[in-house]
Amino acid sequence: xxxxxxxxxxxxxxxxxxxxxxGSRYEVIGGELYVTPTPRSLHQKVVIRLSQVLESFTVExxxxxxxGPLDLVLxxxxxxxPDLLFVRKERxxxxxxxxxxxxxxxxxEVLSPATAQRDRGLKRERxxxxxxPEYWIVDADARKIxxxxxxxxxxxxIEVATxxxxxxxxxxxxxxxxxxxxxxxxxx
Length: 188
Fold this sequence. Notes:
16 strands; 7-stranded mixed β-sheet; alpha+beta
């Protein structure tokens, strides 16, 4: 179960970075601290599989880098830790040490019972507000991936993939076709 602590004060990134490395996930969203327990093994397996597929594709084509987990600093009151993120090679300068300091090109969250509501609500809104162009929510239990895209700073209709979908991280670049049933096989 996720815990939310009311913002009694404004958190700095330096204070946030000092929170214990105890297996819990700490995030500050809109100035409020959220603590989520260690994800279940299913969650971890999905993250690893997605990471392998995306890493293989992006390295093969020299497109950029896949990270996860990595602190994502979107503003003075927003320090998130998505499951995976991708940054195009020409923007790799936004990654410094153990954090990204601007909106990455892709953010991926794998749903857990403790985070589903926040991932689909507050975090989706924050990612859009700070200009994350593409956000995937992976629901392994329902065997689907929800794809949220921004185009010219406006939201496109949600795409729900239960079969396959494509990802083109660089305009006019190579396209990766992701087969959702194959990606989420053996999970449930």
